[in-house]
Amino acid sequence: MLRMLSHDFTPVLTHGGVSARAAGQGQEPEGTACHFDIDWSRIFPKGVGARADAASLGEVSRQVDRMLAQGLQPWATLHQGQLPPALLEQGGWLKRSTIGAFADFARLMGEQLGDRVRHWITHDDPGHASLDLNTGSSGGSRALHRALQISHHRLISHGEALRALRSAAPGAQVGLVLSLQAIRPASHRAADLATALRQDGLRNRWWLDPLFGRGYPGDVLQALGVDAPTVLPGDLRSMASPCDFLAIRPQRHEQQASYGPEPEVDAARILELLERVHHDYTPPALYLISPEASAPNPARTSARLMPSGPSPHSFPRTERVSF
Length: 323
Hints:
By secondary structure, this protein is an alpha/beta fold. Helix content is 37%, strand content 22%. A 9-stranded mixed beta sheet has the order 4-1-15-12-10-8-7-6-5. The protein has a two-stranded antiparallel sheet with strand order 2-3. The N and C termini lie close together (6 Å). Residues 1-29, 129-139, 255-260 and 292-315 have low confidence and may be disordered.
């Protein structure tokens, strides 16, 4: 079933004999979730080795207190793409040193907020990009390699930040958000089946397999050749640190390859994707971030926190999934 953190009802989804439904108010003991981002670039505007900005830390802490006073449960996202300018100047996520910097940021936030914030999202989509194994890179001879190296460093940083948070805030529930697609072959022809497998490998299995201890998919690595990321000893173990939950934001589901992408993200495809992740990877908890309407009352169910001041923003409905 799909259990709504906001306690709203949604229609039952059914597909292939499997159903998912929303539970009503009182069924979700965790209360109403309030999602907010913490802007790393404002907490550490000068990057590695610098002191955290005290005013920004204070504003984050006060905002969490305001959420709790309203009966909301804070869910903190550490990274949605913002990097401290000093880290950008040094190469950003292409540099392995950014991994340690992110873990330090996570540890600090756990120390500052861990007594009040239980749920933490390390990355809201760790660099998911529309990479195409058929066409290779489009921004230079090593653009694909650079993009995959960035994704590799972000996956490692998830594991390192997860451990840092748990060390600083015992009992923290830590996970991440992935944008995934339910890819189907356009036909049963061998070429379409092969294309669908390749695209699924790069768009879905590339993220899921290493996070759940399987390493990168071998067929994708073979197809990438010299564009594959550089993997050092211990990297795969770091990124496979067991998470407490996985949240999925479904993307437009694609039919590969003869007839092009399908135009809608329909309920049957969403359930197909959720069922696959549930059975193939068995995350401890699985959440669906609705690809459609925002929460009915954005001011109560979400807030985007910039340390210079909070401003409510529309956040899609979040549902916990069980089968």
